[in-house]
Write a structure and sequence with these properties.
Length: 335
Amino acid sequence: MDEIPPLSRRSLIAGAVALGAVAAAGETARAADDTSGSTTPGPAAPGPTKERTMPTAMIDGIEVSYVTRGTGPALLMLAPGGFDATMEKWTTAGVWKGMRPLDTLTSQFTVIAYDRRESGDSGGRVERLSWSLFADQAKGLLDHLKIREAYVLGGCMGCSVALAFAARYPETTRGLILHWPVGGYRWKINGSDRFARHARFAKDSGLAGVVKRAHTGKSFWQDPEAGPWASVLVRDAGFADAFQKQDPERYTGLVAASGRALFDRDMPPGAEPEEMMAMKMSALIIPGDDPAHAASGAHYLRELLAQPEFWPVMPPEQTPDRVRDRILEFGRAHA
């Protein structure tokens, strides 16, 4: 699909942490001319008035905000939070709030966390969203950091990104840690409904109405009418301007296609059953037990993955300390 180059000048601060070493380098800001003639919003950078405190990388033309900490084998962390999958969730969401993995896992791992595209301080691009697209972004970040292999930890919807990552990049995946994989009929209907609600709102209110709704400050997961690109619309005026000029019918088609691609089954998506059965890496499965993280989803992964380690501890017995210790134990066992 056609896309325009970045809409505004970017300041890139590239940081890289190899195992046991830290290096940081500044990159020269770049600007690109719009030569494609397309009005589909392309990659977006953060607004010029927002102070940046994290390093960034340009992955497939989209700016990604990330952090690396610790020493030891790399641990790629795929955030929970639905379509608000930010680094912040590792300190504010569920068990992670008490566990604070960006601090407590660093004695054994080099942790790599980031704001997924269309979330937090990372940019985005209007295109058909898929688990493979999210996985490719994660692999691009590892390539940027020159990390050849990593354990992959996914929380909530991050589990589906982890499964897509392992299917596409098995040689890079040392092991999987799947905490509360999404799944269940209620989860599927809830996710599909969010995309349908946004498509209806975009059709009724127009794309200018979508931009206005996004500026109420809520994420797509909190306010489906704001849409999957809400955070980028708020942070980048150039992106928002191009967003309003694109073909609205084509846009609603992309929204519908994205919803079908992401929420196409009752069980955890991200990889096909045959792909999961062929995965040779060990996989720690920590089950959830609520409408968005049905226990049946964790058992589905236990059935399909070739080397599952199913943790038979259910919430609320999954305390922060116990979850931390189980993850560290998995890392030591498969070092």
